[in-house]
């Protein structure tokens, strides 16, 4: 019960050959995975740049309750008077 039979060793050998045999399948898989992550990060940064470029300018409110009138508001007041 504590020892491994020949079939266990054959299965273990096959698994090792599949994972590490050939041309470095694990290293090529990890390289592809790393390229995918880099492409994802690049895409996310490009999305943020386009979102920042399309955003509306920030509107500020002046402190003290004084409001500046635009030229159109001044013209509207002069027509009313």
Describe this structure in words.
The chain has 81 residues and is mostly helical. The protein has one domain. The chain is built from 3 helices and no strands. The longest helix is centred in the middle third of the chain and has 30 residues, at 25-54. The chain is rod-shaped, with a radius of gyration of 34 Å. The mean pLDDT is 76.
Low-confidence stretches: none
Q: What order do the helices and strands follow?
A: HHH
The overall pLDDT, averaged over residues, is 76
Q: Structurally, how many domains make up the residues? A: 1
* First-residue to last-residue Cα separation: 106 Å
**Secondary structure category:** mainly alpha
Strand content: under 5%
Helicity, in percent?
A: 55-70%
Count of alpha/pi helices:
3
Biggest sheet layout: none
The tally of beta strands, per DSSP, is 0
Instruction: Report Rg.
Output: 34 Å
Approximate shape: rod-shaped
Question: Could you outline the blueprint of secondary structure elements for this entry?
Answer:
Elements: H1 6-20, H2 25-54, H3 71-80
Keywords:
81 residues; mainly alpha; 68% helix; rod-shaped
Give a brief rundown of this model.
The protein has 81 residues and is mainly α. It contains three helices and no strands. It has helices at 6-20, 25-54, 71-80.
């Amino acid at each position: 019960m504590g020892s491994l039979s020949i079939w266990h060793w054959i299965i273990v050998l096959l698994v090792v050959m599949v994972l590490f045999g050939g041309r470095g399948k694990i290293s090529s898989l990890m390289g592809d995975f790393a390229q995918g992550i880099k492409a994802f990060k690049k895409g996310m940064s490009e999305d943020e740049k386009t979102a920042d470029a399309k955003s509306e300018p920030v509107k500020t409110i002046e402190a003290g309750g004084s409001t500046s009138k635009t030229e159109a508001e001044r013209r509207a007041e002069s027509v009313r008077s």
